[in-house]
Amino acid sequence: MDLxxxxxxxxxxxxxxxxxxDKHIVxxxxxxxxxxxxxxxxxxxxQLSSDMQDDVIPKNILMIGSTGVGxxxxxxxxxxxxxxxxxxxxxxxxxxxxxxxxxxxxIIRDLAHISVRMxxxxxxxxxxxxxxxxxxxxLLDVLVPEPKRTQSPLGRLFGNVEEQPQEExxxxxxxxxxxEFVRKRLEAGKLENEVIELxxxxxxxxxxxxxxxxxxxxxxxxxxDMIGSLIPKRFKKRKVTVAAARKILEQEEAEKxxxxxxxxxTAVKLAEHxxxxxxxxxxxxxxKGSSSGPDVSxxxxxxxxxxxxxxxxxxxxxxxxxxxxxxxxxxxAFHMAKPSDLIPELQxxxxxxxxxNSLKKEDFERILTEPQNALITQxxxxxxxxxxxxxFKDEAIGRLAQLASDVxxxxxxxxxxxxxxLLEKLLEEISFEAPDMVKEGKTEVEIDAEYVDxxxxxxxxxxDLSQFIL
Length: 470
Fold this sequence. Notes:
This protein has 470 residues and is of the alpha/beta class. Helices cover 51% and strands 13% of the residues. The protein has three domains: 3-121 and 270-355, P-loop containing nucleotide triphosphate hydrolases (Rossmann fold), CATH 3.40.50.300; 128-145 and 171-257, no CATH class; 361-463, Helicase, Ruva Protein, domain 3, CATH 1.10.8.
């Protein structure tokens, strides 16, 4: 099966990928280009002969840049853009084997689970029409039940005596609407709000947290599956509307039509050849020089990540997953540490280094207005729900951008996140008073540079205050 046609490798050209990312992220062209090339190389490698495909491994990317410049946002938008299994994890969640915490192999297990969900969703779409027809038949069985049948005592004991329709005991009501009549009413949507009693499988509650936080956590899935297969399914009766019953029955019928073994096999291949892992906060497990104490665990995390990045086989509940062709994108601020503080073997596995630029006043202006659902657009929409229209003058946007740049220089540089704190403080009073303002007849507010200075200038000037408030 050619996965390229359905899931996995993106068809977009590098320019198209960058254009898509430009809609949401300001600047950082170099990082966007690197990500776009890496994705396109996936497509290119698929066009090679099978012998060469095995040798062409993805070139992993290391993004370096202070917080709030767009590293995680690139990952988020990339996840929506690609039709491939994608997982974003923080390196700080993991500990080396022997310590309490998640082991790094759980990254690949989670990736395999995401891949299975994607393939299963697609298979469900493929059988949707057939499942809908079968669901209608089951609905009709509930709405127009068959006449009850009797069984002799011997039949109950041995199960091999033919059942007899109970025609004499219960005479059939000639006026009862027939199956086809009910089908027509069902198709016309006249029964959607009717309440019926439906027998549905009682989903067993998962044993949350079993073995969690240990290197044995992978066993938990297998044990749960094993116990689930031993315990017979229980059914319970629910009173639901026909519309809700249709959804439940469609889901049940779709599950019967899907071959889960084929789904698992396809999903494992998809994860192996198209999976993307975004490792955030990689700088937090970097160790400065040779040190002992708690840092030994951090270096251990790097050593545990290493075999997964360079290529190994991880056992999952869906089968073994090879990590050789999974694309890894690591990111970190590297304030306290440098990329060279990572262990040399791990550094070598991230050949593409991209430095993201710190944001300037011009960038902040663009961030406030340009992206889809930009910050100012969000605040306008939120207050419009109260009936209050807010208009930001260009001079106010420029002043906000300048303040964000100044405060970032004077205190910690937290990038675009500074705009969130500034805007919240700026609009605090308006947000609080909005319902009363509308009641009094004031439905429009204009925000200019003077208003921005009134609300924020003194705080921004006072270094001590800005540290706590902004």
